[in-house]
Design goal:
Helices cover 31% and strands 27% of the residues. By secondary structure, the protein is α+β, with helices and mostly antiparallel strands. The chain has one domain.
Length: 179
């Protein structure tokens, strides 16, 4: 009995193992989102101070003035854009990619990596499909036009905020002629 007690206490205090899962790369997500693209062209996007202020006035915190955008091209035609980013879940980062049509509407959202022990349901197609067709004019807020998943509230909220930020940044860049 003494041996079991001695072993049980350290095992009970041991940290829970990691749950990191890498589902796909940003490049794989881009090809999935734009299967008709002949190529993807990296475009460095640099927002100026006025654009940063415009975003802030709309309640969007862009986090950075520098963004890496992949333009999906067929010949010289821009089919759309892909932006990969990461947001914090509850404790760990969630990697995701947003595909936007040439007019700035969300085409697709893919979860690239998920490291939390709970909340992986955000990867379900039904939840991600809620973003399709949304533009910068949409609220893009959990509880308004995006449903929450019980047990994944922080993951839902943070990914939704990230998608909202990307949609707003790309719209601002398109209007400013940077894309």
């Amino acid at each position: 009995m003494r041996v079991l007690t001695t072993l049980a206490v350290p095992l009970a205090l041991a940290p829970v193992g990691a749950f990191a899962v890498e589902y796909m790369t940003a490049e794989q997500a881009a090809k999935l989102m734009f299967p008709d693209a002949e190529r993807f062209e990296a475009r460095a996007l640099a927002l100026d101070a006025a654009q940063m202020q415009q975003l802030a006035a709309r309640g969007v915190a862009p986090r950075s003035a520098q963004w890496n955008v992949q333009a999906a091209l067929r010949g010289t035609q821009v089919l759309g854009y892909v932006v990969a980013d990461a947001v914090i879940g509850k404790f760990e980062l969630i990697g995701y990619a947003v595909g936007l049509s040439a007019d700035g509407a969300v085409k697709q959202v893919e979860i690239l990596s998920y490291r939390e022990s709970h909340g992986h349901e955000i990867r379900l197609p039904a939840w991600r499909k809620q973003f399709v067709g949304k533009t910068a004019a949409a609220p893009l807020r959990v509880g308004e036009d995006i449903s929450n998943i019980s047990g994944a509230t922080l993951s839902c909220t943070h990914v939704t905020e990230g998608v909202r930020r990307i949609v707003a940044v790309v719209e601002t860049a398109r209007k400013g002629g940077a894309l």
